[in-house]
Each structure stands twice: as C-alpha cells, then as structure tokens.
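User: My collaborator sent over this chain with a note saying "see what the structure looks like." That's all I know about it. Can you take a look?
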Amino acid sequence: MPEFKATSQFIQENIKSVEPYGTGNINDTYLVQAETQKLILQRLNTKIFENPEFVSNNIKAYSEHLKSKLNGSYKKEWLVPEPLLTQNGQEYFIDGEDYWRAFKFIDNARTYEDIQSLKHASEVGAALGKFHSLLSDLPVDSLYDSLPIFHIAPKYLAAYDKALASFKGDKKELTEYIDIVEQHRELFYLLEDAKDSGKLKMRVIHGDPKPSNVMISDDDFKAIAFVDLDTLKPGLIHYDIGDCLRSNCNPVGENGDPSKVVFDLDLMRGVLAGYLPQVENFLTELDYDYIYDSVCLITLEMAIRFFADYLAGNVYFKVKHARHNLDRAIVQFELLKSIEAQEKEIKDIILELR
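Assistant: Without extra context I'll predict from the sequence alone. Here is the result:
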C-alpha cells in the first residue's frame, strides 16, 4: 500500500497501523501508529496544489517565524506543527505523482468538526486572532502564493460562469440559485476593489479557519494550534474573518439540512469576542468596516465554488454522491439568506465589540 511505503520514508520502526484520518475535502490524510510514536501522514492533492514545494516552503517560513518570535516558549503558548524529515533530509517524499509529507502527532488535543459551545466559538476566534497577530509582522513577500486563485472572489465567479455555460443538464431546479448569483455580482468584487484602492492591505492568511483546523487542548479546552497550513499564503485577512464566521456560526455545518440553516448570532458574538482583542493593535477602522461584507462574500464564494464544482461534474471537492456539491451549495445559499436577513443585528454586534 502506498501509504505504508510513504510512512517508511519518515520513520525507521515497525508500523502497526495506517488509518484514514479526518474529513478533509482535498488531501488524503492518515493517522500512523508506530511502535513508539504516532504521526500524521498526508498525500497532497497535486491537481489542486500544482507547486507542492511552495506549500512546504510556506509552512517552513511560518514555523521559523513563530519559533523566533516566541523565543522558545512556543511549545507552551502556541504549538507549531513540526514536519518530519525523510531519510534523505527532505520535508516530503515523492512517489511517482504522489507527494507525501508527515507531521508529529499532537497529543492531548483534538479538533472538532462542528462548534461545541459558545466557549468553543470564542476559542476558535481567539486562535485566528492569535494567528493573525503573530504573523502580522511576517512580510507577505516571504511567502509563495501556493494557490493563485484561492480566495480571489472574481476568479471564482469567472469559473462559475464557465461551468454554468458548459452545463448540459436540466437547469430548472437550479434557477433560484442562479438568480441569487446574478443578484450579487457586484459583491464578488468588493474586497478586491478595496485592496486595489488601498483601503485594505495584504497580510498573511490561513485560508481555511474552520473548527476542524483548530486544535483544542483536552486539559483546559483552550485553542493551542492551527493545523492544515496548506492554504497559508498572502491575502486579505477578511477572507479569513468571513470564513471563520461562516463556518463557525452555522450549527448544522456544510453538510446539514438546508431547512435548518441559520447564522447564529450568539456564536458570532463568541467568535468575534475571542478574535478582536487579539488583533486590536493592528486592525484599522476600515478593516472593521468590511467585516459584515466579508461574511456575505465568503459565504457566497463558497456557495458558487460548490455550485460550480457540481456543474463541472464534481472535479475539485471530494463527494459521497452525485448531488453532494449541489447540496453543499444550497446550504451556503440558505446561510447567505440568513446573514442578510440579520444585517442590522450583525452590524450592531460588530460595532459593540470593535
């Protein structure tokens, strides 16, 4: 099995088991149990990450910056994922078209697929805030853009338009969602226009700040690390802020029942109460002004990413059935409706906490 072969490149001891781990939509992840240790093994999806060495270099830059900044206390304050080296001293193992890497397993901590409580929401928010704060002085030009299209909303709109134009199936049941996209076309350009006009600046972003990427300590339920750093890159932190709120404030999750989707204001308050105190030293007034719009935009962006993938035949995200991406898209469209219906309340909370 390829995963056993890959594991043997990183550790020189008997391998007891290699089991699928997590629910990621892009890469293949495994939990390896060896004689004396556990590790996380991952096969990077090179159809998505066309330059996997960029990913490795970014993670290395992140780790070195944090270790230097925290002066050795990082193991107590904030855990930094530690890549394992191969027998040849490389941070990855290439086997044909497969690109493998491995990390030390973090004991006494876990991730959760969904938000467990208001405290959990606050911890996820605090984790993103600490992440942004710790990296606020890392020059963005020290990182590669490992996913040039990622979180550039107009590019997703163009991809959606192309997929819709090529779709040969029945569009009758899709009309409602096609109309929603048409009604929101200007929104796709909002953040990029703000960047181009100098209102928002490029910073280092995580790219996927959902609950399952935040490690929570078993001892005190505190956030101790961000994992899944593949999408670490230069970008607008509003994509992170918006995505954190989108993914953490929908209790039914991305695969839930669309009829039960709601943007939970209590969870939103929890996330922002954890996040904003961590970043008050560098967030500008304009940054605050774009928070509400960022939640709307990233929700719409995720909706058309799932929608376009369905239209194109499910070529990007992993699916369990043919309609899976359409169902995911509908959840996001319903979430957008809930967000927009509570615009005043959301803006009032942002104003209260800023």
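A starting point for your reply to your collaborator: The CA atoms of residues 238 and 294 lie 6 Å apart.
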